[in-house]
Amino acid sequence: MTIWTPELPEDGPRYRRIADAMAEAITRGELAPGERLPPQRRLADKLGVTIGTITRAYAEAQRQGWVESRVGSGTYVRHREAESTATFRAGQPVENGVVDMSMSLPPPHPLRPQGLRDTLLALADDPASLQRAVDYQPEYGLESHRRQLAEWLGHLGMSAEPESLVITQGGQHGLTLALQALTRPGELVAADALTYPGFIGAARQAHLKLLGVPLDEHGMDIEALSRLCARQPPRLVYTTPEQNNPTGACLTEARRERLVALAREHDFWLIEDNVQYLPEADRGTPLIELAPERTLRIFSTSKVLAGGLRIGTLELPEALLGRIGSALRAQTWMVPPLMVETTCRWIASDTSRRLLDWQTHELEARQRLARERLADYPTSGRERSSNLWVTLPAGRRGSEVQELLDQRGVRVSTPEPFCVGSEPAPQALRLCLGPPASREELDRGLRIILETLAEPPCSPWHTM
């Protein structure tokens, strides 16, 4: 049994302060999923409060989803990561008539299977490349492949030197490599209070303490991060400066410069995730250009070419190449050469550029359509993003709306899987505009969402 004695914030009702401290301890890894909390009377005695205060605190933590009560057994920390993972259904078939807007995927297009077919046929007629594809290769990838991937990044507006690139099995693998190379179990890492669930899962797998930094429409609140650093600097900060997932917030230039200054002052690393990135007119200065000595940049071909290729890049300072190479060898020895060769041939073809141009214009059109349909509700998202963040009206809960939509054949995501930190999840939905087969299918889903939001909210006592 955990003998947990929190340090309480100074402001607010005692029960609320205890619940907030509990959530913070869970987020930081001090209270692990499945751990039993102290009996209420024992904790009340330790803190010098009434048992009624502890009862209210436990109830508040349970309401926020941090703990669960088991009759006759006590109160336990919930396994939130399992719950979050279940929200995403990658690779599962979509039933007929269902409009799936739950996964951040590119719009479907015949150029994808056609481009892959043409690439594989060309590869089959090239004996030298086939031999290379079945041989062992350096853990970082062949120089020719790294050069081609660097050129592709340049085409997307991300200047990179081949010597600074390591080829990965997609963005998630790059993130895992970075955490393995830079951190040790128990260290503190920070991210936006709403962030990519894959980072949350990877950090927990690495037994790291997670801290969420508040964010607004301009990205991470750097002054809040500064206050955190004054208490305990993190080992690293993970951020998606061009497009927060799920809110779409873009970090302002001033905040980027302040973030870099903080990183240098407190000596922490920066992980810049650009997996969701498509070139935007108002692109900011990449963190890796502002602080190349302490920034690692992650990219993947998943959101532009195809998620099944599982090829990405990790751009990093030269000083880290040895550590990353060791981590790569320990995990996979090398990225499958056949997939790297296929991807590099594809991105060198005219098909990849045609696909990128089409996708850019298609996402712009889908964003316009969604914003027009949902004009009565606050929305945010980048012009060329697959994601749209919709803030719900007062009295509506994301989980309730999600359940109603699921019954009506529309899949969406709620904020809970993206949450880092002790604050309750905002009442909002993330809509992914890419997966629907056409704009007509997307429009049908948007109309169902609009009709559902126009209905009065369900009673909290109503069960569906």
UniProtKB/TrEMBL annotation:
Alphabetic keyword roster: Aminotransferase, DNA-binding, Pyridoxal phosphate, Transcription, Transcription regulation, Transferase
PROSITE patterns reported for this sequence: HTH_GNTR (PS50949)
Residue ranges constituting the HTH gntR-type domain according to the UniProt record: 12-80
Pfam families: Aminotran_1_2, GntR
SMART domains, A to Z: HTH_GNTR
Lineage: superkingdom: Bacteria
GO molecular function, one term: pyridoxal phosphate binding
InterPro entries cross-referenced by the UniProt entry: Aminotransferase_I/II_large, HTH_trans_reg/aminotransferase, PyrdxlP-dep_Trfase, PyrdxlP-dep_Trfase_major, PyrdxlP-dep_Trfase_small, Tscrpt_reg_HTH_GntR, WH-like_DNA-bd_sf, WH_DNA-bd_sf
Keyword DNA-binding: yes
Family: In the C-terminal section; belongs to the class-I pyridoxal-phosphate-dependent aminotransferase family.
Name of the protein: PLP-dependent aminotransferase family protein
Organism: Halomonas elongata (strain ATCC 33173 / DSM 2581 / NBRC 15536 / NCIMB 2198 / 1H9)
